[in-house]
């Protein structure tokens, strides 16, 4: 009896591992494919359907992307926009989520309702542009940070997370003489690290991927984030959207593997953030903080 | 409790004000355009899309420097990626921040925003003063193009000329030779060639793996690449919109159109074309051809020199050629693929404030069309971009020239429709010869010169009905009656209005 149970559980173990391995492979393979395709000679890519190990390594795509120094420069811009932007996002969101999470705030419902309203309705592209323009934010990074400083959706989620922190805890701290700022900075935020890490990630990915606002609000091409240029390369390499007449002899359409190189370029920096944030996804910090 | 709540509000308000303060200072560095006094360079602000990897660098650009010296101006150009150009242009119009010179490309020239802005007097009327600028006037000797650019019969900018006969039949010359065929000259020849390319193993690999004609028919916005218009014109039909009994009618209501669809249906049944033509994506449209599996396609001739790098890698012996305009009952005819222009550069009255400044801008363009400037933009600077060999200019650093002038010369400046280059590139010469030849045989699209608000608003949407029915008809999913039903649906959902508006406009402006 116990032997069959053991062999049953062994069977389950094996089955389970195979299953999990397949899932992992399903996640990893597309990425490997993109990585391999980015160094595959374009003509091989054209003939074969799927390439995991290229016949020879062809770095032309990377050479093309890096042929202008604008890519590296805009990579710096992107990192700057993302880092500072995320900081502003988290600061603004937390500062608003905290009062909204406390039951003793007057007009809480009305405020919340106003927040939800912006989730359903927005002014649209042109009115928003006019606001940004009349605040003299055009051509500054603030035009990227301020209009998107608080995402209503993230705000509500963060408020819900803060609400889970018992009022008794806050009251106990206040009894010890802490003001609201100290409560927020010393108690609420440290207890909400998993939430803060999650929203940092949301916001950071949002900043990293956005390009349209930069095109809209920023005239100076040196201040554009890398996504603008990468997108341009992808459009160009997917074939002919150039102006009606060919311009010069050397008209160059980047080859297909350029697209894959671009994808790698655009995703790897964000991927590198994950391991650093992972340790904050610990749970149960709050367990046992309030008794009876 | 209450007290604490209020304090938080104040804290939030303070933070909200304090944070952006750092941004204000740097927000005001927009240089105001200034008209120079006599002798001083005149600053021209410009707004333009760019199509390549990046816009040309503006500082330390020797070509631009030469142009500026020659015209005594200082150019200040704002670039936006072409894919987002329209959005940005719309917000700039809405916020009245137009620079002096704005590129309005062909796809947006006749849209509501631009038409309304022009009617509201936001742009200078250049048509009235064209005669005062002999260089430009001589440069634009194409009356059809000028008419096609006008809004309500008036010209609100300087058109950017493009070849009219820009589409044609591209074929594999090596296959044609291998099978001892002659160059297709009629619609029937086209069919026979496709058949031979499919059945007779033109690549001599012993396998039946080729198709005669690579067909793409998905996108109603770029119909000129599916060959239908070219074939319809060749047998005497209309180019999209034409006149029948004094009324504007679309091609798909004519018998010639049906005849071409029937030919495609037959080719579909005999498998002479790719069966996935209704699905093939725009960007994959050269895939079969570039793999060396297809023998012909109808397309934009400008693609021929630069879209087939992959083909030469896979089939190094491949040779391409362009067939002359096809012949039919009315002689050689082909469709005008575009109205002979790709929009205009337009001058806003809010940035070009005075008549004197407007004259300076026009003077700039009057100098740009000088042969010296045209040569500079085509070849660059001798010793840097090209060298003279046997009296012919030859590129020595074409890549640098592209980095410095592409997305600039053709877009904001004025270039002739067919830009002649040096004679050492065979396929380019074939292309330019085809541009010149086709021009003699083009059938214009009367709608190019006309405005229909309904077409702008709903045209794209209801044209999908036709594209859909067309694909189904070729794939034998509906019969001729089914196609007629789709045409009736098109009429019912606004097509009748479009026809009425075009007819009305034609009677007003089109006859000039």
Show unreliable segments of chain B. 11-37
CATH superfamily of the largest domain in chain A: MetI-like
Number of domains of chain A: 2
Taking all residues together, what is the mean pLDDT of chain A?
85
* CATH architecture designation of the largest domain in chain A: Orthogonal Bundle
**SS strand fraction of chain A:** under 5%
Oligomer: heterodimer
Element-level helix/strand string of chain A:
HHHHHHHHHHHHHHH
Helix count of chain A equals 15
How far apart the termini of chain A lie comes to 46 Å
CATH names the topology of the largest domain in chain A as MetI-like fold
Question: What would you call the shape of chain A?
Answer: flat
Helical content band of chain A: 55-70%
User: What is the alpha-carbon Rg of chain A in Å?
Assistant: 25 Å
| Class based on secondary structure composition and strand pairing of chain A | mainly alpha
Largest sheet of chain B: 5 strands, mixed
Cα(first) to Cα(last) distance of chain B is 80 Å
The largest β sheet of chain A comes out as: none
Measured as a percent range, the helix fraction of chain B is 40-55%
């Amino acid at each position: 009896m116990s032997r069959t149970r053991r062999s049953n559980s062994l069977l389950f173990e094996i089955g389970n591992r195979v299953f999990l391995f397949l899932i992992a492979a399903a996640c990893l393979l597309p990425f490997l494919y993109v990585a391999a395709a980015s160094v595959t000679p374009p003509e091989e890519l054209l003939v074969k359907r799927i390439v995991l190990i290229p016949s020879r390594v062809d770095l032309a795509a990377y050479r093309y992307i890096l042929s202008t120094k604008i890519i590296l420069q805009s990579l710096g811009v992107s990192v700057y926009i993302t880092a500072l932007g995320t900081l502003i996002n988290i600061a603004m969101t937390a500062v608003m989520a905290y009062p909204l999470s406390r039951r003793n705030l007057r007009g809480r419902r009305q405020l919340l309702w106003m927040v939800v309203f912006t989730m359903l309705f927005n002014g649209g592209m042109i009115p928003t542009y006019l606001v940004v323009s009349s605040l003299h934010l055009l051509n500054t990074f603030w035009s990227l940070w301020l209009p998107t400083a608080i995402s209503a959706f993230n705000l509500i989620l963060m408020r819900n997370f803060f609400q889970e922190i018992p009022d008794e805890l806050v009251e106990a701290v206040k009894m010890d003489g802490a003001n609201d700022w100290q409560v927020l900075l010393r108690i609420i935020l440290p207890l909400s690290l998993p939430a803060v890490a999650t929203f940092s990630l949301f916001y950071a990915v949002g900043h990293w991927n956005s390009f349209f606002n930069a095109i809209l609000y920023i005239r100076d091409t040196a201040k554009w984030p890398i996504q603008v240029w990468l997108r341009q390369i992808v459009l160009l390499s997917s074939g002919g959207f150039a102006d009606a007449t060919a311009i010069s002899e050397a008209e160059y359409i980047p080859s297909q593997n350029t697209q894959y190189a671009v994808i790698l370029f655009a995703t790897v920096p964000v991927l590198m953030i994950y391991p650093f944030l992972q340790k904050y996804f610990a749970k149960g910090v709050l367990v046992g903080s309030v008794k009876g | 409790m209450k007290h604490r709540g209020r304090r938080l509000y104040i804290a939030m308000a303070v933070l909200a004000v304090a944070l952006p303060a750092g941004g204000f200072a740097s927000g005001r560095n927009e240089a105001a355009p200034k008209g120079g006094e006599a002798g001083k360079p005149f600053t021209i602000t410009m707004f333009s899309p760019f199509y390549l990897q990046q816009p040309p660098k503006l500082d330390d650009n020797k070509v631009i420097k030469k142009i500026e010296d020659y015209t005594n101006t200082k150019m200040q150009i704002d670039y936006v990626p072409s894919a987002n150009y329209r959005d940005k242009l719309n917000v700039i119009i809405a916020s009245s921040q137009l620079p002096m010179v704005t590129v309005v490309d062909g796809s947006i020239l006749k849209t509501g925003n631009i038409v309304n802005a022009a009617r509201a007097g936001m742009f200078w009327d250049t048509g009235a003063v064209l005669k005062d600028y002999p260089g430009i006037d001589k440069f634009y000797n194409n009356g059809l193009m000028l008419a096609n650019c006008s809004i309500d019969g008036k010209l609100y900018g300087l058109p950017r000329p493009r070849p009219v006969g820009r589409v044609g039949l591209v074929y594999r010359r090596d296959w044609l030779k291998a099978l001892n065929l002659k160059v297709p000259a009629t619609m029937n020849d086209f069919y026979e060639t496709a058949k031979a390319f499919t059945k007779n193993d033109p690549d001599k690999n012993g396998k039946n793996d080729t198709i005669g004609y690579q067909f793409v028919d998905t996108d109603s916005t770029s119909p000129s690449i599916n060959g239908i218009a070219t074939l319809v014109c060749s047998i005497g039909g209309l180019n999209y919109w034409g006149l029948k009994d004094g009324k504007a009618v679309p091609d798909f209501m004519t018998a010639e159109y049906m005849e071409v669809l029937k030919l495609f249906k037959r080719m579909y049944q005999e498998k002479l074309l790719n069966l996935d033509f209704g699905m093939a994506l725009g960007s994959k449209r050269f895939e079969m051809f570039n793999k060396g599996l297809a023998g012909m396609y109808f397309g934009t001739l400008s693609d021929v020199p630069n879209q087939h790098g992959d083909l030469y890698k896979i089939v190094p012996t491949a040779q391409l050629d362009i067939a002359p305009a096809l012949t039919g009952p009315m002689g050689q005819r082909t469709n005008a693929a575009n109205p002979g222009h790709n929009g205009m550069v337009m001058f806003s009255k809010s940035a070009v404030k005075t008549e004197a400044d407007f004259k300076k801008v026009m003077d700039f363009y009057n100098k740009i069309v000088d042969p010296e400037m045209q040569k500079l933009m085509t070849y660059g600077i001798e010793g840097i971009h090209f060298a003279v060999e046997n009296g012919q200019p030859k590129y020595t650093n074409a890549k640098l020239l592209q980095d410095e002038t592409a997305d600039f010369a053709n877009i904001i400046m004025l270039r002739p429709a067919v830009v002649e280059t040096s004679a050492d590139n065979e396929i380019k010469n074939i292309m330019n010869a085809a541009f010149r030849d086709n021009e003699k045989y083009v059938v214009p699209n009367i709608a190019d010169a006309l405005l229909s608000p309904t077409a702008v608003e709903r045209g794209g949407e209801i044209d999908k009905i036709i594209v859909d029915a067309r694909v189904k008809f070729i794939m034998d999913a509906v019969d001729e009656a089914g196609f007629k039903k789709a045409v009736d649906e098109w009429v019912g959902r606004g097509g009748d209005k479009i026809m009425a508006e075009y007819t009305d406009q034609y009677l007003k402006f089109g006859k000039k």
